[in-house]
Each structure stands twice: as structure tokens, then as C-alpha cells.
Amino acid sequence: ETGMFTYDEGYTSTASCESKITYIDGAAGKLMYRGYDISYMAKEKSFLDTAYLLLNGELPTKEESKEFRIEMNKRAFVHEGIRKLYDSFPDRAHPMAILSAGVSALSTIYFNHLEINTPEEYREMANRIVAKVPTLAAMSYRYSNGMPIIYPDLDKTFTENFLYMMRAYPHKHVDLKPIEVKALDTIFTLHADHEQNASTTAVRNLASTMAHPYAAISAGIGALWGRSHGGANESVIRQLEMIGTVDKVDEFIARAKDKNDPFRLMGFGHRVYKNFDPRATILKDIRDKLMDELGISSELVAVANKIEHIALNDEYFVSRGLYPNIDFYSGLILRALKIPKEMFAVIFVIGRTPGWIAQWSELRQQKTIKIARPRQLYTGKTERTPN
Ligand code: SDX
């Protein structure tokens, strides 16, 4: 019935490509940004240092770090016209839908700056998008909950500002504990880039068609939203809430192993890491510290701990290399930071934006740019004529 057509080998596509940005060794559980191991970056550096490294190829000097922080604060404000766009969305609209629209809308404001060719144009575009995404993100949350927006505070650091814009109330000072700010800053750092994952493939594909960066980042947001990808952290919490109590865990573990049951254990498994996700290792420590420091112990944490214990010892998961991934722990930390679960994928976007821009820029600075054009293996009907 269906003929197997061969297709010309040697097609080129950005689906798999060379890059100088991020190195992953899935078997060894290793991840490096521009040659620096993420355990060093998470412990010793800030997210802004990480963004600077990904975008410029080198860590910033003290002076460069100070200038970059000032630049981020200056560019954090968005055109007031964005508020009219946000006003048009219904209450309870998902923040990822609002954010992808907001980033795309930036291209209507910077319509004179869509062609990016010189190093100065790259730098200005990169700084503009990295600085504005947290503001657009916090605005998307406030709008979807009918709350007044909070403008960036020029005296706050990048991550403090985001938490402030998210949670502040005009009449009440918001106490941001240093451990909370450092936990979120580390989550941003650990999400900053991850080589050729699904959403980065979307971003690179748009770069290959010569689409401008605002369209590419908006497409990356759409790809990341899927629950198999960046939407997994929100799904982890929804799943833990659905399981509800420790005595129900075994039933759901059995369902996760049952081939006839589409149920998947959210936050477990990875396309590349068949060993521990090195980002998960770092976040596991932060989660444990945060739980102690903030005195959080809940049935949800008990359910998560039981799932983690079973999965780390059960033959089905161990034989398939299904270890907890970054989303299993980031979901629990974000919940401890009282960030609503519909904002979890948005947090992922804020972290991944410098990586996406670095990847878009790297492709666009290639001497020759081949448009992404993966082929399909045709398995449909052989040629036929109506009888
Ligand atoms: C991210 O690519 C990236 O780098 C992504 C990311 C990034 O930083 O950009 O790291 C971020 O997306 C992390 C992944 C978040 N997603 C989830 O946590 C969703 C739950 N995970 C699964 O959907 C799944 O593990 C994937 C999508 C992550 C990977 O899917 P694969 O590649 O199809 O899994 P696999 O080939 O390794 O599966 C091997 C076996 C299969 O069973 P068998 O056919 O061998 O019997 O493991 C099973 C799968 O059915 N399996 C699971 C499972 N994940 C895989 N069984 C139960 N629960 C799961 N979560």
C-alpha cells in the first residue's frame, strides 16, 4: 500500500548544527556554558553574569558587570502601548499566551530596528529583549489577575525586580528574603541555555529564514509552552496536587509504567540526560535548603519525596534512565517562592531568553545561512489514478 521512497541524503538543516555556546554530555550529566561548568556559574555567578557570558562569549569584568546591570535596569521599561494590547486580553488568559504576544509586539515598536547586522545592533537588540522580558512577564501575571502593573524599580537587581513587579502591592512593602532571590536567580541561570532543545530549534529555524529576533523568541515561547518541554514544571505541580496524598503514589507509579496508559510522570526523563540532569542536582540542594529555611513541609513535598525515592530505585525508571529532571525540582522551589504555577513556564522563558538570543545570533552570523529544511520520509500511498 505505501511505498518507501528514498530521499536525497545530505540535506542540510539547522535541525542539527555546530555551536560554540553550550556543551552537554548526557551520559556524564555534564553541562557547560561557553566552557564554564554550570555548578560554577550557579554557585559563583549571577544570572546577569550568565546572560552576559552567553551573549558575549566571555564573563564580564567588574566594570562590564556594573554597566550591564545599569543597562538592564534602564531598558526594563516597556512602551505604554503594550498595556493597550494587554488590556485586550480576557482575565485569566494564560501568561504564556500574553508573553508571546508581548514579545512579538515589541517588533511593532522597534520596527526600525528589525534588521540586525552590526555588533552594536546585536548588543542593543539582545539587551533590549533580555531586559524587557521580565517586565512583560510580570505584567502578564498582573493583567491576567486583574491587578495594577508595578513598574520596574531602578534600585533593584534584575531578579529582585522581577519578584517585586510580580508580587508588590502599592500599599505594602514586599520583603524579599535573600535566599528567595538567590534561589530564583539560580533557577534563571540553570535555564539559560541548553543546546539544541525543541524551543531552541524553533528559534534557530526562524533565524535561518531571516525572521527577526522578536518573532524568533515569540516562537521559542510557543514551543517551550508544551508540557513535554518547558510546561513540565507547571505539570509537575498539577500532577502532585492531583495525586494529593502519599498513599496514592503507588497507583500513579503503576500508571506511569503501564504502556497502555498515556500517564507520564512529569519531571522525569530527558531526551539527552540518561543520567542525573546536573541542573536537577543543584536545584535539589536549593529545594532542601529553602524548605528548611522557609519551614515548608507539606503533603505535596511528602508526595514528591516518595515519587523521587521510588523512581530512583525502581527498575522501570532506572533501566530507562528516567531520573528527576530540572522541572521536577524547579516546580517545587517556585511553589515555595509563592509563584503561581501558571507562571512557571514564564520563569523558564526569562531564564532561556539570553540563550535563545545567543543561538539566534550565532546562526545569523554564519558566513552562509542555510534555511532549515528537514526532509520527511514519505510512507503514504504510491502513485495512483482514479479508477
Ligand atoms: C525539558 O531537550 C531539552 O534540553 C529540554 C530541556 C531544556 O532545558 O530545554 O531540558 C527542558 O524539556 C526537560 C524535560 C521536561 N519534560 C518532562 O518532564 C515531561 C515528562 N518527560 C517525558 O515526557 C519524557 O521523558 C521526555 C519527553 C522528556 C523524553 O521523552 P522520550 O525521549 O520519548 O523518552 P525516552 O525515549 O527516553 O523514553 C524511554 C522510555 C520509553 O518507554 P519504552 O518505550 O522504553 O518502554 O521511557 C519512557 C518511554 O515511554 N518514559 C517515561 C517517561 N519518560 C519516558 N515513562 C514514564 N514517565 C515518564 N516521564
From TrEMBL:
Please give an example of a GO cellular component term from this record. cytoplasm
| Pathway info | Carbohydrate metabolism; tricarboxylic acid cycle; isocitrate from oxaloacetate: step 1/2
Enzymatic reactions:
oxaloacetate + acetyl-CoA + H2O = citrate + CoA + H(+)
**Active site per database record:** H270, D327
Under PROSITE patterns, the record lists: CITRATE_SYNTHASE (PS00480)
Which PANTHER family does UniProt cross-reference here? CITRATE SYNTHASE (PTHR42871)
Question: Which regions form coiled coils?
Answer: none
Annotated GO biological process:
tricarboxylic acid cycle
What are the UniProt keywords, alphabetically?
A: Acyltransferase, Transferase, Tricarboxylic acid cycle
Q: Please indicate which superkingdom the organism of origin belongs to.
A: Bacteria
The family classification in the record reads: Belongs to the citrate synthase family.
Q: Which Pfam families match?
A: Citrate_synt
- Record's protein name: Citrate synthase
Q: Which GO terms describe its molecular function?
A: citrate synthase activity
Entry-linked InterPro entries: Citrate_synth-like_lrg_a-sub, Citrate_synth-like_sm_a-sub, Citrate_synthase, Citrate_synthase_AS, Citrate_synthase_bac-typ, Citrate_synthase_sf, Citrate_synthase_typ-I
Report if keyword Acyltransferase is assigned: yes
Is S-adenosyl-L-methionine included in the keywords of this UniProt record?
no
